[in-house]
Amino acid sequence: MKKIFMTLAAFLCCTMAIHAQLLYRISGNRLTEPSYILGTCHTADVSFVDSIPGLRKTMKATKQVYGETDMNAKSEPTTDELDKFILLPKGMTLDSLLSADDMKRLTAFMIDSCKMDSDKVELYFDLKPFPLAIYLSLKCDGFDKTKTSDSGLCFDDYFQKEALAQGKEIGGLETANLQYKLICEHFSLNRQKELLMCMVNNHKRPEEKGGTLKTYYCQDLDAIWREFNDNIDEDCGYTSQEMVEMLGVRNLAWMKKIPSVMNQKPTLFVVGVLHLPGSAGVLNLLRKAGYTVEAVIQ
C-alpha cells in the first residue's frame, strides 16, 4: 500500500511539473555507451525508486554505480578520525558554547520534537553543533523510519547495494573523510552554533512545511533549485560563499573524475540533487565539457 501511494503521489505531482526530471542521460564526446546521473534526496523513501521514469531500465543497462562516496570504503574515517571530526575539543561541551536559554530550548527540542529520551539527551552534548544539527534535522524529519523501510539503507546507498547484488562495481566521487571534514570542520564553532540554534528555533516537521522532500517527490528540479536559492543569505540558509564550498567546489572536483569513470564503462552516478542544477551544477559542467545531457523521460 505504501509503495502504491508513493507512486500515485509522484504521478500526480509530475503532471503539474513541466521540468519534472531527476535522471539524466550523458552521451557524446567520444563515449561509446551512455552513462547516467541521478539526483537524490537523502530522506526519500526507497520505494520512490519505482516512480522515477527510466530508472530501473538504467540500473540494468549500466555496469557500475558511483555515489558521492563508496559505501564499502569501511577503512575511513577511523574511530579516532571520526571523534576528531564530530566531537568538541576535550573538556568542552555545548553548554560552554550556548547560553542557558539556548541549552533549555535545545533540550526541549530534542525531547519534544525529536522524541528522544530525556535521560539520554546529554549524551549528545559533546558533539560539535553542526553535526548535531544535521543529526537532529534528519531524526525529526523521519530519517530513522525511512532507513528501516529497506533493511537500514538510506535512499542514496540503495543503488550501490543493488549494483553489488548484481555483481557490478561501485565507487565514490570523493572520500568519506572529505565529507566529514566539510561538514564538521568547514564552519567555525560560532557559525555552527548559529546554524544549530536557527534550526532549533525554526524547524517544522515535513508534514507542516511541505518542503524539500515534497518538492523532490514531484521530481521538479527547477522548483528544487528555486526553493533552495530562496533560503540563501537569509533565515537559516547558508551564505552564498558557504554554498560555493558545499556545492560548487565539490562539483568541479568531481568533474576531474567523472569523464575517466564514464570512459571505463557505462556508469550510474548517484549524487545529492542540489549538485545537478545551476550554472555551477554538474549538468551544466558536463555540457560545457562537450557532453550531451538529456532528461530521461521513460
Describe the structure.
With 298 residues, the chain is of the alpha/beta class. It has 15 helices and six strands. The protein has one domain. The chain has a six-stranded mixed sheet with strand order 4-3-5-2-1-6, sandwiched between helices.
Give a quick rundown of the structure.
The chain is of the alpha/beta class and 298 residues long. Helices cover 49% and strands 10% of the residues.
Quaternary arrangement of the chains shown? single chain
- Which structural class matches the secondary elements? alpha/beta
Average of pLDDT:
84
Q: Could you state the order of secondary-structure elements as H and E? A: HEEHEHHHHHEHHHHHHHEHE
Total of helices: 15
Topology of helices and strands:
Elements: H1 2-14, E1 23-27, E2 35-40, H2 55-61, E3 64-67, H3 79-86, H4 100-113, H5 129-140, H6 143-148, H7 155-165, E4 169-172, H8 176-185, H9 189-202, H10 206-209, H11 211-217, H12 221-229, H13 240-255, H14 258-264, E5 267-272, H15 282-288, E6 292-295
Can you tag this structure with a few keywords?
6-stranded mixed β-sheet; alpha/beta; 298 residues; 49% helix; 15 helices; elongated; 6 strands; single chain
